[in-house]
Amino acid sequence: MNWMNIVIFCTSSLLILITDWKLIKKVTKLEKILFSILLLLALIPTFFNLDNVPGPITFIELLFGAFGNFMEELP
Predict the structure, then answer these.
(1) Which tens digits make up the pLDDT trace of 8-67?
(2) CB 46 within 8 Å of CB 6
(3) pTM of the model
(4) Which of 7, 13, 47, 59 is surrounded by the most beta carbons within 10 Å?
């Protein structure tokens, strides 16, 4: 885990809040809650080492790899 990523994310979140404060004050309570949830959900990936996390291609190869081998064996 890189602490600098967390600091950068928190700083950018504060900048978003500061620049959009006038718009945020005018919206309903539900929209404020949803905005906060979206920012918190974006914070979650900063706690993981994303360099070592397999991507979507790895998942597709795992999912369809056996099916591809089966299709190649057919006459």
Answers:
(1) 888 988 898 889 888 888 899 998 899 889 888 888 877 777 777 778 888 888 878 878
(2) yes
(3) 0.54
(4) 13
Where do the H-state alpha helices sit in 1-75? Answer: 3-19, 21-26, 29-43, 56-73
In this prediction, residue 24 carries a pLDDT of: 84
16 neighbors 39 (Cβ within 8 angstroms): yes
Contact call for residues 14 and 25 (beta carbons, < 8 A): no
Phi, psi of 25, rounded to the nearest 5 degrees: -65, -30
Q: Return left, alpha or beta for 25; rule: phi > 0 is left, psi -120 to 50 is alpha, else beta.
A: alpha
Token match 């597709």: residue? 60
Q: Alpha-carbon torsion 19, 23, 28, 34, what sign? A: negative
